[in-house]
């Protein structure tokens, strides 16, 4: 059995490194059936998803991952990955908390693609 | 096609109402293959999951849901549900932020059970 926790950790490192360097390069991780819900806005398909990520109104972004949780999501190799962390945007030094949930499914090339992707900023409860 | 957003909303309302009233009554929502990762502690199966929830060290708890996101998680009726919100414990009036992700799968009785469940407190990033 694949080690879903190692795969989740590798995916998260790769995803945010790529996001923070050049969001266009995230395209190969998505497919036409992929879904992204970004702050309640639903998008489907690689083109729509990457367009949304690229057009986000900041040039510089840094994701700081605080927690990674993973579980098998089905009996055919799917993995659910839940990340919490902080975002630093542009020159702003006050981080914002976020949470992002992915479901990774095996592709036919020994790797994975993102089937589900849900992003939310988390505001302080107090 | 079932309306996954309505199902997610109904599930979340039922889940936290039941949690806040009597956590023992959550047992029918889980199965032996269900997984819960609670603040990084992994548990599997109805008995272990409900025991964990019941033994949490508080008597009074109130969940205040802020956001609910949902997407289909497979082609056979699964639904991924991501909740963010605030927790009020005992007489403490300062809420804590949390996020909880579920994958619901159809049972054979026209309803759903919880296959994946991941709970995390979210601490302020600043």
Automatic annotation (TrEMBL), chains A, B:
<keyword id="KW-0963">Cytoplasm</keyword>
<dbReference type="Pfam" id="PF02136">
    <property type="entry name" value="NTF2"/>
</dbReference>
<dbReference type="InterPro" id="IPR032710">
    <property type="entry name" value="NTF2-like_dom_sf"/>
</dbReference>
<feature type="domain" description="NTF2">
    <location>
        <begin position="7"/>
        <end position="121"/>
    </location>
</feature>
<keyword id="KW-0539">Nucleus</keyword>
<protein>
    <recommendedName>
        <fullName>Nuclear transport factor 2</fullName>
    </recommendedName>
</protein>
<dbReference type="InterPro" id="IPR018222">
    <property type="entry name" value="Nuclear_transport_factor_2_euk"/>
</dbReference>
<keyword id="KW-0653">Protein transport</keyword>
<dbReference type="InterPro" id="IPR002075">
    <property type="entry name" value="NTF2_dom"/>
</dbReference>
<keyword id="KW-0813">Transport</keyword>
<dbReference type="GO" id="GO:0005635">
    <property type="term" value="C:nuclear envelope"/>
</dbReference>
<dbReference type="GO" id="GO:0005737">
    <property type="term" value="C:cytoplasm"/>
</dbReference>
<dbReference type="InterPro" id="IPR045875">
    <property type="entry name" value="NTF2"/>
</dbReference>
<dbReference type="GO" id="GO:0051028">
    <property type="term" value="P:mRNA transport"/>
</dbReference>
<comment type="function">
    <text>Has a role in nuclear-cytoplasmic transport of proteins and mRNAs.</text>
</comment>
<comment type="function">
    <text>Facilitates protein transport into the nucleus. Could be part of a multicomponent system of cytosolic factors that assemble at the pore complex during nuclear import.</text>
</comment>
<dbReference type="GO" id="GO:0006606">
    <property type="term" value="P:protein import into nucleus"/>
</dbReference>
């Amino acid at each position: 059995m694949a080690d879903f926790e190692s795969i989740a950790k590798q995916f998260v490192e790769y995803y945010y490194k790529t996001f923070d360097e050049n969001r266009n390069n995230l395209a190969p991780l998505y497919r036409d059936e992929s879904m992204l819900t970004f702050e309640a806005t639903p998008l489907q398909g690689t083109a729509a998803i990457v367009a949304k990520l690229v057009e986000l109104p900041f040039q510089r972004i840094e994701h700081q991952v605080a927690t990674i949780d993973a579980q098998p999501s089905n009996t055919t190799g799917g993995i659910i990955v839940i990340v919490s962390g902080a975002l630093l945007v542009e020159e702003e030094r006050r981080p914002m908390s976020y949470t992002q949930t992915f479901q990774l499914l095996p592709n036919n090339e020994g790797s994975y693609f993102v089937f589900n992707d849900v992003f939310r900023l988390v505001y302080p409860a107090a």
